[in-house]
Amino acid sequence: MGLSQNRCDVLVVGGGPAGLAAAIALRQRGIDVLLCDALVPPIDKACGEGIMPDSRRELARLGVDLIPGQGADFRGIRFCDEDSTVSADFPSGSDLPGEGIGLRRLVLHGLLLERARELGVRMRWGTPVRLAPRRAPSLDGESVNYGYLVGADGQVSRMRSWAGLDRGMLHSQRVGFRLHYKIKPWSDYVEVHWAPLGQAYVTPIGDNEICIAAVTRFPDLVRTSEIVDSIPALRERLRDAETISRERGSITTTRRLRRVVRGNFALLGDASGSADAVTGEGLAVVFRQARLLAESIASGSLAPYAAEHAKTLRLPQTIARALLLMDRHPAIRRKALRVFAHDPALFAKLLSVHMGEEALNRFILSHAPWLGARMLMPLRA
Ligand SMILES: Cc1cc2nc3c(=O)[nH]c(=O)nc-3n(C[C@H](O)[C@H](O)[C@H](O)COP(=O)(O)OP(=O)(O)OC[C@H]3O[C@@H](n4cnc5c(N)ncnc54)[C@H](O)[C@@H]3O)c2cc1C
Known about the structure:
This protein is an alpha+beta fold. The chain has one domain: FAD/NAD(P)-binding domain, CATH 3.50.50.60. The protein is built from eleven helices and 20 strands. A hairpin with a 2-residue loop joins β14 (189-195) and β15 (198-206). The mean pLDDT is 94. The structure holds flavin-adenine dinucleotide. Flavin-adenine dinucleotide binds next to α1, β13, β16, β18 and α7.
């Protein structure tokens, strides 16, 4: 296929992390890509801004270099509630970095954009895709000749409805808010604080900066400040801290679609299904999907992508459902955190499963009976 203005091998709609990662992975395989997004960079979005080790590994595969000093490393995850605190370090596998990195969303977007530009991705910003039933999409009124079409237009995907791929299960829908505070990070873990209104998770972003993402089932009632104020440990720490960004909100879902491919069209990223933000795995999943999609297109068919896509979401969605059970039932959450606080090695094993370093089935076979018994037994204070 030629490289004339409106001809391309692949047209990617959506220049968020999913669309940009797919464009990069396609160019790495020599495929011609045209990418469009309705917005103009720098593009910001509500995000906890924690790049987990598996996500960091995917960025390295895309050739995206994280420049020292641009973010802040974190070594693991800490869960806290009114009674208990438990922490675990990330496992370090053969090619898994032992640390995650807290990185402003704007910085991440800029790095992906720069890498796409370096590889020769053609990009049209400020260009919304126009969709009409049974008609090929146009870019702001101009028609495009493409071999494959990719819909990476986020949670509220219009491409998904246009292609008739909306059918599936919506397991959960919540809202997340993000706010930055000027304060020296007090921990090198991402802290997830559990409270009746939702979770607030704290990610170190720089020497003197943290990001708080607050996720709630009650978006009509609360925003970041209400959730932070309802958690004494955070209220105390942030009493005099200055907020240094505008609060942003976004929905977060646990969604599974029946199909993500129709003909030469594929859904990608949040548009193709997702796991609740509290898993912290959103970016790792979209980067994995982008690699899978590029490999599939390079092989000349979307069939491998259609067959493998569900696997990218299986584990994060299983974990999301367990965490959402803890969100809805404070008694279960309090008990689970107390059990983990008594046995931090078990929490570390669970984190290892979460990072894909240990099989979930093996974890269940080895630990579920014991964990079940501990959940039923009274715990000493
Ligand atoms: C509160 C919150 C906290 C989170 N925290 C984390 C975290 O700590 N770590 C993590 O890994 N993940 C996290 N996530 C998840 C992560 O942010 C998402 O998985 C990720 O943004 C998905 O990327 P995407 O490219 O699929 O979608 P998006 O980032 O939403 O990008 C979609 C793009 O499509 C464009 N678009 C939409 N419609 C059109 C149109 N008609 N024409 C052209 N362009 C269009 C939009 O402008 C946008 O740029 C969090 C999510 C939330 C909500």
